[in-house]
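WARN no homologs supplied; continuing
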Amino acid sequence: MKFGMRKPSLKKRISAKTSIKRQVVHRAGLKMPKGKGWIRNPKKYAYNKVYNKTSFDLFKLIKKLFK
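OK structure emitted
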């Protein structure tokens, strides 16, 4: 588990937005409503919940500072 600042990766950011799996899920209409991820995959939901509370993103931090 990661604690502290996340290391930004431009390659991972682009590949996540342009992946074939993402395109198929979006076009098929299989997206879950926001906040209902625990229905689809409870283990992944729990991991992500803890990860997002124990780490922070550099870009979001900069965005808050200049807001």
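The beta strands are 4-6, 55-57.
OK
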